[in-house]
């Protein structure tokens, strides 16, 4: 007895549907007798070509050449037009692939004799299955132009020669490849000096030291105070906790500006009222070493209340039975801290602590508000306390070294992305361990 499907169309070739869909969106659907859907795809492609074809052609030409007529073509606009064209082409490719897959799927159904849904049934099915996508799609489109486009523009600038002395439309920009990155890492100028390399090494080193020292101190101080306040012998715990959290309640920029006045070399209360007792006067804002010390102390003051509040909640959740069992075993205070308190605290807070390091790595506010990254350093185009993010700000808004600022921004983004990936992996590891 034959089991062949009588409605199967063995001569209906899915490959033909694929080829037709590639040649023109919708032809494969017409081949599959999906006339309404095919007509919609054809109208979409023709409309796309007629309305955006000239813009896309101009945009691709612009991003490849960055202009050919000096004083007429604006390289920055051409770069932006080119990036917009790439995003639009990416959206078009996604729809084109969907068109090809749809034609192939329907062709296979026809060849096997399966029922093909009508246009009304297909619309209903799309609405039922793709309902979330209809609400997500506008956000994704906005994301592409509000977030992705500026990121791509920054990446593009990093590979050009856009600077104060070479600005459009007076001059045309040129693609220079990895030359800007080479100036930061490898290039050596005359007499063995390279201001970009020297400045980058200095700023990057201070950024790492700043991140590690300032963040570690605020975490250590927060943990130390949380342990003291959590001690059962301490009274008035609520009052003490409230006082210690008060610095967190004051806006950070206000605190930074107050400290900037207090550390002023000439009239600041640190020198005139406190250190004057010991006949001392420290150049807090003139000497990079002392400015860095002041910044680390201020950040410790700003950051410890959050860590204190975080650790206080964790310490109160540790079972007292563990400590009682440790007392029975004769464990010392330090042994209980190493074996019970610290592992429990780190297990619960490690991802947040990692993000504290990432936050301080890009802590622009304190660096800029305290002393604008100063004082100046001879032989460098960055201040003595500039970190990477504040150096990028100076290069962009004061020195107009746009391409170099973009190159450093990419390096910054890669480092912060590394922090984020590490944090997410640690979070996943904690969840797996807990399970």
- The helix/strand series, from N terminus to C terminus, equals HHHHHHHHHHHHHHHHH
Structural class: mainly alpha
> Could you say what the CATH topology of the largest domain is called?
MetI-like fold
The average pLDDT is 87
Residue share in helix? over 70%
Counting structural domains, the number is 2
TL;DR of this structure?
The chain has 435 residues and is mostly helical.
Question: What does this protein look like?
Answer:
- The protein is mainly alpha-helical and 435 residues long.
- The protein has two domains: 14-157, no CATH class; 192-434, MetI-like (MetI-like fold).
- It has helices at 14-23, 27-31, 35-65, 75-112, 119-129, 131-157, 179-185, 195-230, 237-249, 252-262, 269-274, 288-317, 320-328, 333-361, 364-371, 388-397, 402-434.
- α8 packs parallel to α12.
- The mean pLDDT is 87.
- One of its GO terms (biological process) is maltodextrin transmembrane transport.
- GO terms for molecular function: ABC-type maltose transporter activity.
- Its main location: membrane.
């Amino acid at each position: 007895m034959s089991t062949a499907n009588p409605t199967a169309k063995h001569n209906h070739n899915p490959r033909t549907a694929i080829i037709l869909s590639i040649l023109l969106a919708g032809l494969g659907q017409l081949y599959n007798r999906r006339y309404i859907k095919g007509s919609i795809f054809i109208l979409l492609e023709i409309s796309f070509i007629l309305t955006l074809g000239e813009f896309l052609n101009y945009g691709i030409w612009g991003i490849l050449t960055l202009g050919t007529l000096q004083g007429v073509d604006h390289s920055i606009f051409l770069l932006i037009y080119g990036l917009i064209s790439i995003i639009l082409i990416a959206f078009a490719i996604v729809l084109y692939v969907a068109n090809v897959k749809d034609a192939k799927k329907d062709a296979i159904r026809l060849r096997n004799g399966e029922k093909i849904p009508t246009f009304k049934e297909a619309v209903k099915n799309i609405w039922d299955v793709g309902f979330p996508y209809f609400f997500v799609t506008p956000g994704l489109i906005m994301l592409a132009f509000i977030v992705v486009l500026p990121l791509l523009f920054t990446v593009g600038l990093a590979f050009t020669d856009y600077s104060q002395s070479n600005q459009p439309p007076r001059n045309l920009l040129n693609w220079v490849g990895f030359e800007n990155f080479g100036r930061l890492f490898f290039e050596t100028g005359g007499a063995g000096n390279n201001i970009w390399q020297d400045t980058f090494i200095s700023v990057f080193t201070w950024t790492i030291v700043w991140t590690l020292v300032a963040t570690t101190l605020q975490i250590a101080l927060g943990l130390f105070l949380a342990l003291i306040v959590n001690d059962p012998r301490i009274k008035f715990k609520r009052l003490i906790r409230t006082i210690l959290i008060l610095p967190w309640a004051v806006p950070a920029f206000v605190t930074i500006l107050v400290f900037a006045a207090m550390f002023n070399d000439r009239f600041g209360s640190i020198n005139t009222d406190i250190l004057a007792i010991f006949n001392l006067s420290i150049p807090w804002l003139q000497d990079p070493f002392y400015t860095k010390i002041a910044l680390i102390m201020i950040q410790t003051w700003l950051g410890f209340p959050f860590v204190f509040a975080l650790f206080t909640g964790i310490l109160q959740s540790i079972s007292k039975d563990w400590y009682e069992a440790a007392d029975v075993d004769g464990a010392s205070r330090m042994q209980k801290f190493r074996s019970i308190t610290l592992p429990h605290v780190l297990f619960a807070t490690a991802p947040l602590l990692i993000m504290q390091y990432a936050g301080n790595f890009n802590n622009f506010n304190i660096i800029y508000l305290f002393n604008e990254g100063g004082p100046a350093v001879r032989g460098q185009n960055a201040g003595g306390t500039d970190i990477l993010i504040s150096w990028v700000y100076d290069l962009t808004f004061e020195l107009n070294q746009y391409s170099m600022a973009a190159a450093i921004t990419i390096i910054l983004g890669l480092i912060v992305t590394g922090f984020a990936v590490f944090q997410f992996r640690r979070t996943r590891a904690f969840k797996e361990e807990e399970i």
